[in-house]
Fold this protein.
Amino acid sequence: MLNEFYKHLQTSKLLPPKSKLLLAVSGGVDSVTLLHLLHNLRNNYGWEIALAHYNHGVRKDATKDALLVGDLADLYGYPLYVGKYEYTDFSEAALRKARYDFLENLRRDMGYDYILTAHHNSDFLETALFNTVRGSDREGMVALKEKRGRLLRPMLPFSKPEIIVFANLQELPYREDSTNSDVSYSRNMVRNVLMPHGSMKFRNFHHNLNQRLAKLKDTNSRINQGLSRLAESIVEYEDTKSMQLDIEKFNSLPLVIKNNLLVYLVKRLKPAHGLKRVNISKAVKFIENSKTGSQMPLPGGLQLINTYGKFVITSEPKEYEENLEDIFHILSPDKPFQNEIFKLAINKDTKAGIKLPNQKLYVRYRQAGDKVSPIGMEGTKKLQDVFVDAKIPKHLRSMWPVVVNSTNEVVWVPNLVKNRKFFDQSSNNYQYLICEVI
């Protein structure tokens, strides 16, 4: 198995040389075997290895697992980090989240490059069945991937029987988790009931299932390429917390495309989104029928917001609330205006910036009914329409400085529009305004 593991790493390039690896070790046969394999190849790759053990506090004998992992750390000469579950929610989802949070926080704080877990091919098949039973979409059926961000699973090509045989031949010490046989845990029911019955009922069950899932992965890849191209015409703005879509274009799509596109876009914001079919169906209906200002929560702390003919998916819904701060800043050479995004000042040293006749100016945020007479066009335009036409996300509109005169008329909206009424080029007395994005 060591040779096969080495060939797999050579082919996949999954574990780069000289990487700092944080290996999750439970004390079970899978993680102990992975530790043994990595240890035997560490000189070939120049890896720096450390172990991490998380005690869920579910079993009374869990301390023995920690002691075994401690002995293994001493035997191999690797650092060991230990964490313990301190909460009252002992659901499978809560325990899993706590374990991965512990590993990721440790990786980031201690400067490791990757987290390694010992998930294998049997886990891959179990996850496919488990997620299918739960009503997962096409992505959920092949959710267990070799690489997800900084999380790597180098044992996925190997089956549980292979691992057990290898560990026993090498006389590796490991412990059996007594809860693995408890079918009150839904995943154990899949592992101990559905998987064995499938093997007994259908010839080549594991092989055929692997083949079908491999084809599904390839199909998913091609579908996602198409969704990516489609998203280019619908996503108008995107950052790490939010994305803004054109509702009209989204709603013009067939229902099956809308369902898939929504999941694809949510996953771009939050890979572990937790969306289920019922969430997707309700979200699509919300997008089709909601009114401006409506909001709908989604799993994973996400929010759907209908805002001025646009559809927003965000993990920061507070950013889309109106800024109610009563600000009326007197702008002078000695008193520039600054908020979290912009810095606005009168330039008294050089003739650089926006040139306009000398007058008393103030800075505030937008107000209902704001209008402007843009240079180059007749009539007036609502400031709201200026923001919409410029595709400015709503959470930025509420923070955008508006320069007004003593009668509260809009003079200039930095980087967006000038009011022609106040840019009289025949004046002999000018001042210069500069605006910087911080």
The first strand starts at residue 20 and ends at 24. The chain has a mean pLDDT of 86. Residues 2-201 form a domain with the Rossmann fold fold (CATH 3.40.50.620). Residues 239 and 356 are 34 Å apart (CA to CA).
